[in-house]
Amino acid sequence: MWAFLGSDVMFFGAFIATYLVYRGKSLVGPYPSEILNIPVTSVSTFVLLMSSLAMVLGLHYVREGEKNKGTLWILVVVLLGSVFMGFQFVEFREFAHLGLTPRTNIFGTTFFILTGIHGAHVTIGVIWMAFLAYSSHNGALRADNALDLEIAGLYWHFVDIVWIVIFTVIYLISANDGPPPGMESITH
Amino acid sequence: MASLWRKLTHHDGNGWWNLPHTASNEPNPPYEGPIGGAWLGNILRILTHGGVSHPGPAFYWLVGLFLAIITLIEVWLFGVGGLLGSWYIPLLLILSLMKFVGVVAFFMHLRFDHRLFTYLFGAVMVVGIFIFTLVLLLLEFGNQPPN
Question: Would you list the domain boundaries of chain A?
Answer without folding.
Answer: 2-24+53-173
